[in-house]
Structures are given as structure tokens and as C-alpha cells.
Amino acid sequence: MAKYEITGPDGSRYEVDAPEGATEADVVKGREEELTAAFDEIAKNCDILYGNEEDFQLCLGIEGPEAGGESIDDKIEDFKAMIGRIKDAYPQAHWIGTSLREVVSANHHKWGILLWNDGEFYLAPLRDIDVLDRIGGGDGSVGGVLYGIIKGW
Prior knowledge:
Layout: E1 2-7, E2 13-18, H1 24-28, H2 32-43, E3 48-51, H3 53-60, H4 76-89, E4 95-105, E5 108-117, E6 120-130, H5 137-151
Parallel strand pairs: 3-4
Antiparallel strand pairs: 1-2, 4-5, 5-6
């Protein structure tokens, strides 16, 4: 068994045991309640919460639209309702955002962002993007949002 250590924003330490070479699914299986509690503790200390609908559903237990899929434009109100539920659960958050991704093919996606700040929604509508490698797309998305918040956009 290998030990993985996670430190929360308040200094709380969480230790996770997993077999050497374990996949993420191996680490999570049977521990959903424990991990959701850890993510909840972290989220309670955040001013900014950002993820896709699956992140919020799996990590925090917040009901949202069906993860991924087609016709994201038709689900914007569902995403707004999910953000409302996140705000209810984490009232200290001043910024809550979600990536909007519609997969057309492996190399062609539509990408947008829905962001909420203190009662106001901001929507960057879906736009066509060419995809060489989808790993890190969400990281780049949140990086842009954080840069905008820091710059006061």
C-alpha cells in the first residue's frame, strides 16, 4: 500500500491508502462518502468554486445536468440552477463557475463558460475549438477565469 496525503486549506491533513499503481477509480471506490466530506470541507473555505457539472456532482454531491453530452445551449438554465444549489450549499463563495463542453468529435469540441458573481450570471457562449489533446482543457479554462478575476474584468 502507498500513502497519499492531502492537506486542506485550514491545515487539516487527510491520508489516503491505495495500492501501488492504483488508478483514481481504485482510490475512490467504496470511499465516496469520506471523499465527499473532504471536498466539502475544502469548498467551505473557498471564495471561488469552479468545475464542470460532473466535478460538482461527484465531489460535492450537488445535483446538476447530465454530465457532458449534446445540446449544452439548451441546458443553460439547468446549469444556472446547479450554480444556485452550489451557492445555497456554500454561501461564502462569491464566484461560482462551470465549463461548458459539447463534444462533436475527438478533434472538435464546442467550449464555453458560465460564471456567477454575487447575484449576476456571465455566459461565454459555446464556440467551436479544434482539439489536439483535451487533457488540461478545464485547467486552462479556470486559469483564464482566475486571471480575469485578479485583473478585475
